Amino acid sequence: MEESQSNRLINVKFRPSSGEGFDYSFDPGQLTVRQLKERLTSNTTIPADSMRLVYSGRVLKDEDMLDLYGVKEGHTIHVVRGAANRASEQAANVPPTSSGQRNTNSTTQNSPFGMNPFGNFDQDLMRSMMNSPMFRHILSNPEIVRTMVMQNPTMRQMIERNPEIGHIINDPSFIRQTMDMARNPELMREMMRNNDRALANLETIPGGFNHLRRMYHTLQEPLESAGRNNDQSSEAANRRLAEMLNVERPPQGRINNTPLPNPWAPRNNTNSTASLSNTTNLFGGIPSFGLMGFPSAQMSFPSPSSTSRITNSTQGSSQSTTPNSQTNGASNATTPTNTPGNAPNFPNINLPQNLSMSTDPESIRRIQQVMQRYMTSSQFASRQQMPQSYYPSLFGSPNPFFANMPQLLGASQTSTQPSEPPESRFRVQLQRLEEMGFMDQAANIRALLAAGGDVNRAIELLLGNTSS
Amino acid sequence: MASPATLQSALLLQKQLKELSKHPVEGFSAGLVDNENIYEWEIMIIGPPDTLYEGGFFKARMSFPKDYPLMPPKLRFISEMWHPNVYPDGEVCISILHPPGEDKYGYEDAGERWMPVHTVETILLSVISMLSTPNDESPANIEAAKDWREDYPAFKKKVQRIVRRSADML
């Protein structure tokens, strides 16, 4: 085998772990691995010392001849940077920085602090950074830290609006403590545990809950709304929902014993009916209302752990207990259910009649019938291009959508004919029909129009047509 | 050796081996332990960049059953390994290597387990992804999982040690 292969150049592809691959021709009978590596240095940035050639599941050894490994024409050899003699430094330093850098970059985007040490950070990176003399020097000067924080517009805005938070930033001992904490994960963990316990204890003290709530309003809310980039959409959505449901804000500070509004009652508010006639708006709003598992409510708590880290750090210096995720839980306790976050604004999401309705199969069926009839008549659902699969999830959750049914029906009178041509309106449905083998597009559109966008009904109609 | 099933698996593996040596996939290199035996593969897994395992070269053996691809191969690290989803003896525990049918672990979908469409390539890609994101819900190495969850610095230290050793072994 050696004999036949000697004096013969073969062309082999080389594939470095980063950068372009290249071809190189050599004679495997004449070359040791080491010699090959030295020839390859011109093609790669890897020095021969730390170059590793991997072929067929093996790392090629420097002293071996290449034909020992049976490298053949057209095959590929991996070229990787090995650890060489500096194994320890490379293994210890390179990976964390490269991966950590990316982490911090992504957190800066949405964290209230310009360089938030408390987001999803790489603890080790953080620690090594904090321990560097330059950083220590910077951070030992509270003035610099303050300027850094104030340079972030969101932070500045928040502090201007909430002087209480400004105090924290101005407190040098707080900053020092925070930095200590960032430097030492053990300390941080300890602090967070203490904080959690303090909050848990606070709740059992008479009046403690109110205190928690107050803290929540003064600290957590501004912090979060600052982090949210003034995103009003969920609040606006809440307001719209509350309006549609005839709800007023529950009285603050005492038990809400006003009777729940009757969602079926005729509306006396003409304004809202007008807005309801715009069914697109109504439907488009529904997902953002967070009915399916309350996504919007959760959005305002993008990462409970990271917010709790922020607030926990606040607690570090002032020793005043600060709200964290526990507070969120506590404020939920005011509502009859465990809906997260901003649910207190509309506790009637789980109206009893809604609940019973959504669990009673009979009423679900009836509502489905009503809805189907309704859709057939006004074709409104098709305008939303709402995937049919939405329905199960709508029906599966206790859902104000039901409460809106009368208004929807009322609104159907005012809803105008859609301006979009049916081809684009029913794009999704048409595609499905075609996949099922209904190739006559004109007939499909006709059926979809008649079925109000319901693919199943359209199929029934199509089949009925062909059989009759 | 001449039974149809054996022939099929051997042909399939032969084809995959040829394909991989011509067009290898980023992150690993595969060959045979012994050129006479197509069922025992030698794998070199290159520690994926930007993970704790970067810089490491981990040797592994992949043993195919004769009824491959109906049944999954076994993958075992020869190099020392410290990872929540690798048993202390080196055997890799990922769902796609678990045989189809009865679910002895009780938590996996059939779709997550072995399917004949999997190849050496898809398995190794799963392994590489496993290296970058351990699944600590079904740990094979309890100690490693505990470290990973509760004492990350210690976990990291141990991984760095095995990475260093694997590089030194070259």
From TrEMBL, chain A:
Record-linked Pfam families:
UBA, ubiquitin, UBQLN1
**InterPro entries cross-referenced by the UniProt entry:** STI1_HS-bd (IPR006636), UBA (IPR015940), UBA-like_sf (IPR009060), Ubiquilin (IPR015496), Ubiquitin-like_dom (IPR000626), Ubiquitin-like_domsf (IPR029071)
List, alphabetically, the SMART domains matched. Answer: STI1, UBA, UBQ
Domain of life of the source:
Eukaryota
Region Disordered: start and end of each range?
Answer: 87-116, 246-279, 297-361
Start and end of every Ubiquitin-like domain?
32-80
**Gene Ontology terms, MF aspect:** polyubiquitin modification-dependent protein binding
Annotated GO biological processes are: ubiquitin-dependent protein catabolic process
Record-given protein name: Ubiquilin
Query: From what organism does this protein derive?
Result: Glomus cerebriforme
UniProtKB/TrEMBL annotation, chain B:
Top-level taxon of the source organism: Eukaryota
Instruction: Name the keywords, alphabetized.
Output: ATP-binding, Nucleotide-binding, Transferase, Ubl conjugation pathway
Q: What is the lineage of its organism?
A: Eukaryota, Fungi, Fungi incertae sedis, Mucoromycota, Glomeromycotina
Which Enzyme Commission number(s) are listed? Answer: 2.3.2.23
Q: Tell me the protein family, please.
A: Belongs to the ubiquitin-conjugating enzyme family.
List the molecular function annotations (GO) for this entry.
Answer: ATP binding; ubiquitin conjugating enzyme activity
What SMART domains does the entry give?
UBCc (SM00212)
Question: UBC core domain: from which residue to which, for each copy?
Answer: 8-168
The name of this protein is E2 ubiquitin-conjugating enzyme
Catalytic residues, per the record, are 93
SUPFAM superfamilies (UniProt xref): UBC-like (SSF54495)
Recorded hits in CDD domains, A to Z, give: UBCc_UBE2G1
Keyword Transferase present in the record's keywords: the answer is yes
Name the InterPro entries on file. Ub_conjugating_enzyme, UBC, UBQ-conjugating_AS, UBQ-conjugating_enzyme/RWD
* Gene3D superfamilies to which the protein is assigned, alphabetical: Ubiquitin Conjugating Enzyme (3.10.110.10)
